[in-house]
Specification:
The chain is α/β, with parallel strands linked by helices and 460 residues long. Helices cover 51% and strands 14% of the residues. Helix 3 links the parallel strand 3 and strand 4. The longest helix is centred in the middle third of the chain and has 29 residues. About 8% of the residues have low confidence.
Length: 460
């Protein structure tokens, strides 16, 4: 059976891929982890699609280079009236989002967004003798381990660059609210009020940092709505850059969720957990958690990220991946409850396969051989007495099991697994002024406390 599964990949993902393959230089070194995730997005989209689509909405000076670098992507020019309408709707959607503060911490819509990103920003006063500096600080478990917070803050920095390259002039800034002061609707007004209430105020870095995060939140909302709208019109799946992915996961207002992404991410996570469990006795499980699933596999078979992409383009024509796409095609024709049943069936096959792998490698606990997965996508499986559509047979779900189990098996046979992270980062070209950004952090136990060095910043 031939299929025509289409996947849309956003331009921010492609920008990350450009950096990791060495096409452009990287200035913010904390951004490498984001670019690895962008590579994972692209190769996954390649493997599970028959056709990749990009949106040709970059400004003229950037457009031609992008088209040449990704000649395996069909860049689509949305008609001017349609593009104008979608952009206006996306901007309106972003403006209806709210960035709220309750005391010194975020509140409302934006909280789920930050929870998905696993960051916890807070407004604080940094105290030096008799001078106090207003800052945006990240609450962390260990102030010596802030790699994740640096990476996320770096993504917010780069969002401004991406927006400069897109041909849109709409206002997509979300609303700003302070629960204790309904008359404050701008960040600069909040900063002015906080400063005027503190006789020890010296200077502030809050305006720039908070503006950056608020901008990223609005741009993520605008781009997420825009790309999901185009994907719905094209009957395509959509693969977005990590920040936008987090927005879609945290925001319940996007009406075009992707069954494909939810299933693939679950399959990858469970396979990765199996590898980690098997490798733990040898002390190599750190690797299994370090790199995304398909990136790990592809870089183990190649030498550079660019070769990973080339191998993915080759593997997409293999029978197992073709069969997986047939299953996705069939899923599109099932009602919601029956689709859920089939998805859970796929996950059950993978669960059984993972158990087989763990038995083979004698992974055990104090209670003997054990392995438990919490399976299920989009809700629990529901059994009905009515006859189900006969689009599936049990064996038709097994291509997913074969694909993910075989890759996991291959990964367990790879020697010097820890070197793969070095290989996937081998093509980065660092800018002459490259560096890691400095961020302010606060130990978690100090979140609601103050001492001679720091205290929460909130209106009196």
């Amino acid at each position: 059976m031939t299929t025509n599964r289409k996947c849309i990949v956003d331009n921010a993902t492609l920008s990350g891929v450009e950096r990791i393959v060495g096409e452009s230089k990287i200035k913010n070194l904390a951004y490498k982890e984001n670019d690895i995730l962008c590579l994972e997005k692209l190769v996954t989209a390649i493997l599970f699609s028959d056709r990749l689509i990009g949106i040709d909405d970059y400004k003229t000076e950037y457009r031609s280079a992008r088209l040449k670098k990704f000649d395996f992507i069909d860049f689509k020019s949305v008609s001017s009236p349609t593009y104008k309408q979608l952009s206006a709707e996306a901007a309106d959607f972003a403006r209806r989002m709210t960035f709220s503060l309750d005391g010194s911490v975020p509140a409302g819509d934006v909280v789920k967004f930050f929870e998905t990103l696993r960051i916890e920003p807070q407004l604080r006063w940094d105290i030096f003798v008799s001078s106090e500096y207003l800052t945006l600080s990240f609450i962390v478990q260990d102030p010596k381990d802030v790699v994740h917070e640096q990476a996320i803050e770096s993504i917010f920095r780069t969002e401004a660059t991406d927006s400069d390259q897109v041909a849109t002039s709409n206002n997509y800034s979300p609303q700003f609210q302070v629960r204790e002061a309904s008359d404050i609707s701008e960040i600069k007004a909040l900063v002015h009020t906080l400063a005027s209430e503190n006789p020890n105020f010296k200077s502030e870095q809050l305006t720039t940092a908070l503006n950056r995060i608020m901008f990223g939140y609005g741009w993520a909302a605008e781009r997420s709505y825009f790309y999901n709208s185009v994907a719905e019109a094209e009957a395509a799946d959509v693969f977005l850059a990590p920040l936008r992915d987090a927005f879609c996961e945290s925001c319940c207002r996007i009406d075009y969720p992707s069954t494909v992404q939810g299933l693939l991410e679950t399959l990858k996570t469970k396979s990765q957990e199996t590898i980690a469990s098997i490798l733990t006795p040898s002390g190599q499980s750190h690797f299994a958690l370090k790199l995304p699933f398909f990136t790990s596999y592809l870089i183990s078979k190649t030498d550079t990220p660019k070769q990973c992409i080339e191998l993915a383009l080759e593997l997409r024509n293999h029978k197992d991946f073709q069969d997986c796409r047939v299953i996705f095609h069939n899923l599109d024709h099932l009602p919601h409850i029956e689709k859920t049943k089939e998805l859970n069936g796929i996950l059950k096959y993978l669960n059984d396969s993972c158990r087989g792998l763990m038995k083979k490698y004698a992974v055990s606990t104090e209670n003997g051989l054990q392995y438990s997965l919490s399976l299920g996508v989009t809700g629990p499986s529901v059994n009905l007495n009515s006859k189900l559509h006969q689009l599936f047979r049990a064996h038709k779900n097994k291509p997913f099991t074969r694909t993910f189990r075989n890759i996991a098996q291959d990964m367990l046979n790879v020697e010097r697994l820890g070197s793969l992270h070095e290989k996937v980062c081998s093509s980065f070209r660092e800018h002459e002024e490259s560096s890691y950004p400095k961020i302010s952090t606060t130990p978690k136990f100090m979140k609601n406390k103050e001492n001679e060095h720091s205290r929460p910043a909130q209106l009196e």
